[in-house]
Amino acid sequence: MIDQQLGALFVQLAYIGASAAFILGLRGLTKPDTARRGMQLAAVGMVLAIIGTLLNHEIVSYQFILIGLVVGTAIGLPMGLLVPMTAMPQRIAVSHMFGALAVTLVGIAEFIHYREAVGGPGVVKMVALGFETLFGALTITGSFMAFGKLQGFVTGRPVTFPGQKLVNAAVFLGAVALYAALVLTQSGGATGDAGLVMFGLMTVLALVIGVTLVLPIGGADMPVVVSLLNSYAGLAASATGFAIGNNILIVAGALDGASGFILSILMSKAMNRSFANVLFGAFGGEKAAASHKSAEGLTTRSVTPEDAAMRIGYARNVIVVPGYGMAVAQAQHAVRELAELIEKRGGRIRFAIHPVAGRMPGHMNVLLAEANVPYDHLFDLDEINGEFAACDVAIVIGANDVTNPAAKDDPGSPIYGMPILNVQDAEQVIVVKRGMATGFAGIENELFYLDKTSMLFGDAKSVITQVVAEIKAL
Amino acid sequence: MVTTLLTIVGAAAALTAVATSGTPTDSSTLIDAQIVEIYVFLLAAFTGFQIITKVPPLLHTPLMAATNAISAISLVASIVLAGAERPLFINIMGMVAVAAATINVVGGFVITDRMLKMFKKTEAPK
To answer: Which domain holds residue B81?
Structure first.
């Protein structure tokens, strides 16, 4: 008896230590120089929590645990070591899926377990279990769909069909009604299989919601989706903690939930969406119809890589605006070479990163860091927007909507009010782009038609490589 | 910052002690335990908000990978399921859950470290 109490105390101490390690580890992430050590501390916290759990007196056999740990490590380790940085958005999406799968399995198993116990799960535990399974299940399929869209085996275009909103609403209400019924009827009554059927049906509906939630969302909205799923995965983990009375799950889940929530808010702000709009998943689709300013009668000026090299080579102050197009063309290494060349010639180079550039929060920063661009050259919107006016050349590489001045001065534009990078303030603008296709918002970008703007058409990687060669020859 | 943290850890420890004392059949203790859990959640959520709003956009991708690895703490619940005295199919569900969560723990921390290793300052001129 005393041994058991001592064991329980040790488990709790391990969990408290782990909580502290997680919080301090995340605090490390507030600065680039402390980030790495912080995360190592968090990893130690995780090991502590696992060791503590293995000593739990409830555990009678270890073979299943061992198999799970070995299989998980065998899959997770190569994934962690080998996934290229360009595939990071997919990897994050798929990891939300694995996390949610674990949480959902725990939810279902605990539901079965509690039903067999005297008195059933009770109202409070049922609330937690239902929430856990509902959010867990929708995060499984939602993340899988997001993964598919980012990986390219599900179309990146928004998928819509007539009556979609109605179907979505019906499925959602059905799942919520089953959840409410389970809570109110004490998990469907202590006897009979009604509770199991209701719980199973709720789980299936939640799986369907995950699909219908992400299907109508286009590729460029993925930063919001991935952040939101991050938050859901955290909340589901926290609910697990409530269901089984475990504080470490509550703490870690709350940290993850808060992080996903904050990122979702930041992303929706950067995309000019209300947060409510994002929360209810009603994004995508609608705005695609609006292409109200036509480009008729306007002309662009196209330049050759030689021309561009002349302008960039003699510029003193250059700002590069990277976008998803840079990632697609894998142009980040060529861009870094260009940056080094400009510096060598005595110019100053900085990168302006829009919050939603790319397919996930911070996507461009990671790609440029991998290409060895020092992080003190990377600036976010607020830091750099005042600097464009003083810059000789702004180079836009594979970005579009985030530079569109219509967001500032055309109240009729669908992106009006969205924070943009003030590229139009630069003395000259060079836009590297494959063709004149519109960006994700489906609208013309007036920036391209300004007198100061030169279009440099072609694949970003080969064009930038040519520019680099030309500057070297100057 | 550190004081906030200490307060939270201290509160969590004290509350856990309260929550785990008493017999589980005592219904008032059960409600106390659930109230305590809500405290823990709120305090952790506030702390999370405070810290995470300070994470610069530069590190948002590593942040996401890191919180993902941390939320794989559901591994703890999965381990108990896989190893406790339950029907075989529950143990097997637990095993699958352990594997899924371990993928995130191992993969998540490794990939976060790989990313953070890449962020470098401009080298000082020699």
So the answer is: 56-126
Query: Rounded distance, CA B109 to CA A43, Å?
Result: 7
* Distances, alpha carbon A400 to alpha carbons A285, A403, A431, B84, in Å: 19, 6, 9, 55
Q: Do B111 and A83 touch (CB under 8 A)?
A: yes
CA–CA distance, B68 with B107 (Å, rounded to integer): 10
pLDDT of A443 reads 78
Same-domain status, B114 and B74: yes
Give the confidence band of B29 by pLDDT, cuts at 50, 70, 90.
Answer: low
Q: Are residues A454 and A384 in the same domain?
A: yes
Which chain A positions have a beta carbon within 8 Å of B83's beta carbon? Answer: 56, 58-62, 64-65
Tell me the pLDDT band of A290, cut-offs 50, 70 and 90.
very low
Contact B57 A362 (CB under 8 A): yes
Count of domains observed in chain B: 2
Summarised one tens digit per residue, pLDDT across range B90-118 is: 999 999 999 999 999 999 999 999 999 99
Q: Which of A33, A376, A380, A401 is catalytic?
A: A401
Distance from CA of B18 to the nearest CA of A (A): 12
Q: Determine whether A401 is an active site residue.
A: yes
Residue B49 and residue B92 in one domain: no
The span from the CA of A16 to the CA of A12, in Å, is 6
Range of the domain at A26: 1-82
Q: Do A99 and B72 touch (CB under 8 A)?
A: yes
* Same domain flag for A422 and A344: yes
